[in-house]
Structure formats: structure tokens, C-alpha cells
Fold this protein.
Amino acid sequence: MAPGFSPNELSSYLVIGAILFSLGVFTVLTRRNAISVLMGVELILNSANINYVAFSHFGSGNADGQIYAIFVIMLAAAEAAVGLAIVLAIFQLFHTIEVEAAETLKE
Amino acid sequence: MTVSTAVFYLVAAITLGSAMIVAFSRNIIYSAFSLLGTFAGVAGIYIFLGADFVAAVQVLIYVGGILVLVLFAVMLTHRITDVEITNRAAGRIPALIVVGVLVYLLAQTVRETPWTKAKEIVFAATTAKIGDLLLDTYLLPFELASLVLLAALIGAVVISRKEIKE
């Protein structure tokens, strides 16, 4: 491990966030499966939240960053519910959840 | 190395290792269950950052809500027998190059930026502070959030219901 990687360093949290973000982008780019794409989006949102909370903790010391993180979590829940409902609707219509299958707006 | 540093390494390893399984696994069930490790690990990172309330919310909503939703969606859209081939991935090499450059740039930026740190870093319970802020400075976004959740609830029901053709 790098010498600066410790729980008391801001940069270690930012590096964790960066790696998590990149893995999320990789998932979104390569997956053909709509549910897996949504999983990648969740990874990206989690990495953004780590950055919010880390800057809130090491920076100003007030709780604003944590409030943003809570709003992001709330929106992620709404996004997951609507996204997975759309996936189910696509599955009923096309009998597959590969994202390329659903390229028309109707049957 | 102190115990807390060791635990921090462990939490970081669990988070990133599970995220790698999510990104690279060929089996969608493994991907979905590995999300559990990632979400729980991120909750642990929040605790290291002194954000106890956010960690609790993370466990409640991500592990208890979103993960169950994802698993339901996987189970409802796959026949159990052909689950193994359904997590197809395409264009891995170009994506790997793009993501490699991205993570290099991000890490370089993190390393070279002179981050200013607060004079003293406090570990205190944050729930009361967050509650005050939500009903004071962030009252309007808070109320909008409830509206968004209501719209998402109704929208999800409308979209996923079976249409009865007459």
C-alpha cells in the first residue's frame, strides 16, 4: 500500500472513491444487461457520496456534505425503484433485458 | 500499524473487492450479491469519517432496500437455469483502457492537489445537527424530496403493472 494510505488522510478516501467510480463506469460501459447497468450507476453514486462525506469531515466540519449524501441516497432509491420497474416492463414486452433489444418505443 | 488502520484497510479491501466482482463477474447473481459487500463497506467508510447517521441510512436504504429490489428484479427477469450466461459484457478492452486512463488521472489529481485540512477534526454525533439542518437550511429540498419519492412510488407502480388488454 502507498505510504499515505491511512484513515487520517483525505486522499485515501478520495482514491477509494475514484476507484469505485471507475469500476462503476466500467460496469455501465461494458454490460449489456439493464440490471447490471443500474448496479454500475449505484457504484458511481456511492463513490460520489464517499467524496461528499470525506470533504465534509476533513474540510469545514459542518454537516452540509452529509446532507447532500442523504439526498443522493434518497434519489438513488427513487431511481432504483423507477429503473427496475422500467426493466420489468421491458422484460414483459421484449422477453429480454439486454439493452440493445429495447431500441424501439413500442412492439 | 494500529487496529483502526488495519480495520480501515480491511473495509477498503472489502469495498473495492466486491465492486470488482460487480464489474467483472460473469454471473449476474454474484454481481447482485457482491453489491452487498460494496454497500456495507461504504457504510464502514462513513463510520471512519464520523458520519454515523449517513452510515445508518446507507445500511437501511441501500442494503435493506435497493439491494432487495435489485435481487427481486434479477429473479423476476431470469429463468434460474440460464442465469449464468446472462451477464454478458462487450467491448471490455476499450472500456478497460478508458477506465484505466480515468483512474490514473483521478489518482494523479488527488495526489498533486494541496488539500487544505481543518485545524482540528472532531468526531461527534451528527444526527441532531443533520436534523436541525434538514428542517432549517434545507427545508425546501427536504419537502421536494418527499414529492419526488411520492412521484417515484406512483410511477413505479404504473410502469410495472400488467396491462390488461380488452
About this structure: The helical segments of chain A are 10-30, 34-58, 64-94. Residues 10-94 of chain A form a domain with the Helix Hairpins fold (CATH 1.10.287.3510).
